[in-house]
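I would like you to sit down with the record closing this message with an eye to the fold:
=====
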Amino acid sequence: MLVLAMNKSEAIALFYPGMAGSATYRIPSMITTVKGTIIAGIDARISDMRDNPNKINTVIRRSVDNGQTWGDVQHLVSYAGEGLNGAAAIDTALLQDEETGTIWMLFCHTPGGIGLWASEAGIGFDERGNRLVYDGSGGEYSLHPDGHVTDREGRATSYFVDDEGNVTSDGISSGNIFLKKGVHTEETLLEARTSFLQIIKSDDDGLTWSRPIELNPEVKEAWMKFIGSGPGRGIQLKYSDYRGRLVFPIYFSNPNGKMSCTVIFSDDHGKSWRRGTSPNDGRRFNGQILSAETLSADGADLTESQLIELPNGELRVYLRNHAGLQRTAVSVSKDGGETWNEPEYDQDLPDPTCQSSVMTYPDLGDGKTRVLFANPADPRKRTSGTIRLSEDGGSTWKYAKQIDEYTFSYCCLTVLDNGDIALLYESDFDFSENKPITVKFTKFTLDWISSS
């Protein structure tokens, strides 16, 4: 049982090496639903802790008693292939539409053999929204929703692809479109060798989930290579003209391999999605005016991000960046995420170039806008996990408490039904020795953060 001691609980291992048949787990996401359920999302890295290319599944655990007890691991998304040849569903982010109750989980899918750096430019779909697949000679085909395949002239072929990507030709097994090229001896068709932004949803508080929904046709440009989620959590806007908008942070790479962040958003409860511009669009950096599409300047990359909305309707996005200043960057939007101002570096937020977590605390009616921020606070390495509290919307950070003195990497915050704050974070790892990660869960109170 998880009990608060002196207003902070002992951390428990929520996901650990070998649990439920997975070598290790990485990249936490977490929300508290309107029913008070905690949903903790994670990558199940089945045989190896590395990023994709790798066999990576999307899984969750749920708690209905504020983290005292937890359900079993639920596997939500799994693609074909094994080990480092396997396809991936990686880097989750969660949010709930409080008006409909629908829970959304965003993630990146890549086929076998493909990760951030190997992703090719392209959307992966034709002009009608059908998935593009290719034969061994590079011939292009369209995969229709019913599984049938046509050539580029629209003529029927003998190919059929089922929901799991398995290909048959005249009824004979002929590979799987999600596999790494050359793995299957009867290989015929493969999907595009790029990254796919996908989303799933649950309408029953996370008990069951939809099949993946493709977002590339709506939010990815043909010149983009990689595209992925924040990761961590998204938000639903509560203020100004954009009330009800669903917003997820994402990032992507351009033909030069340089990365920029932005958000995607929906104004119709997830039926359709649009992409905002990036803080790198129009940014002045080292005497240059940048564009996310043509960016080539070293140090200008803006990658994994998390965002909050302030009571005045302003959005603030907190950015992992590669400027070498070892500080978290912050950019502001005043139009619901459609455009962003030039990033500034918060000198009070030291950062070893790692993802961080940020969220607002519910209004207590005392005129203070409380913001919580968690990250590894050592600018040299991923240690010294720290939670910070601002009472003025992130302008200053008056309070800080150390969560874990030792290893601490990606993390995600949520506020529980009873007002406690929970943190899910990566711990007990050694990247240099490929030592598997333990993902820990702890909770604490506002009073504990602000106590001396």
About this structure: The chain has two helices and 37 strands.
